[in-house]
Write a structure and sequence with these properties.
The chain is α/β, with parallel strands linked by helices. 20% of the residues lie in helices and 16% in strands.
Length: 217
Amino acid sequence: MKLLKILLEQEKILVPRRIEGRPEKHIKAIQQKIQQYIKDGSKGNLSLNDTPITSLPDNLKSVGGNLSLYDTPITSLPDNLKYVGGNLDLEETPITSLPDNLKYVGGNLYLKGTRITSLPDNIEIIGDLWLVSLRISSLTNNLKVGGTLALAGTPIKSLADNLEIGKSLLLQDTPITSLPNNLKVREDLYIGNSALAKKYTDEEIRNLVDIGGEIKR
């Protein structure tokens, strides 16, 4: 009996204790990191990938470099956020909308796996905008995309006026049947398996819009 008691006491010693408050401390450390980034002038990248962050502070008005929130539970961005100097990565997050005041993304805008259905008015994206397979049904007027605009597999039915695409436009597997007369695509137009491909010949499309590259079906 005495030996059994000693063994039981030893087993208690070996059992690791549950660490209290670890998630709360982690979130607090992330919040402190963000506030220090703002205090330092919001320069450079703000990387928060795979963290438990659900929101950003209202005093985050700009990000000088990349803002990376990949695979986080974030549900919204601050209304005051107007400028992201590099890439804005929101892939695989539950976010449903972007702030209306967001007017500039200096790199690529990654939205794969989100619930985004619309974009802010007059937003300018210097890099690529990938909206593949999202439920987005329309684009904002005066949208400017310096790189490629990928809309393949979306339910979008029409494009916005004054749309300028710096590289290619991907419209495969979309129900789009017409293009705005003032559309500008500097590189290639992809229309494979789209309603547009069934309705128009390549020559008819070129007569409608300004395309700098090839039309690929």
